[in-house]
Amino acid sequence: MRIRDAAAYLGVSDDTVRRWIDRGLLTATDDESGRKVVDGFEVAQVARQHASLPAHPDGPVSSARNRFVGLVTDIQVDKVMAQVELQCGPFRVVSLMSSEAVRDLGLELGSVAVAVIKSTTVVVEAPQGES
Asked: Is the pTM of this model over 0.85?
């Protein structure tokens, strides 16, 4: 993958990826056009090693591994149900819950919340034409 694509997936600048290559954190090769490229799996490994999600504010222990700490950015409440939107780093997470749950949790715009996802179904998509 090209340097700019790796930078986008890692959430850093092109220059940071180049510095990581210079320091040996990533290995670059030249493609058939002479451009520097890095291996996608290696980029994924670096992303995993350097991931730093904020810790849960109260630190509970849970079997759920998919936890996203974020800030409440939108709440739509009607009589029975509510839609709560969180911004968790670069990710937007939307949850549907009861209006009572919103009140019980004390959710309001700007408050810290944790999206915990425990599911047996995870949909994975890939760009067309790539394998």
From this structure: no
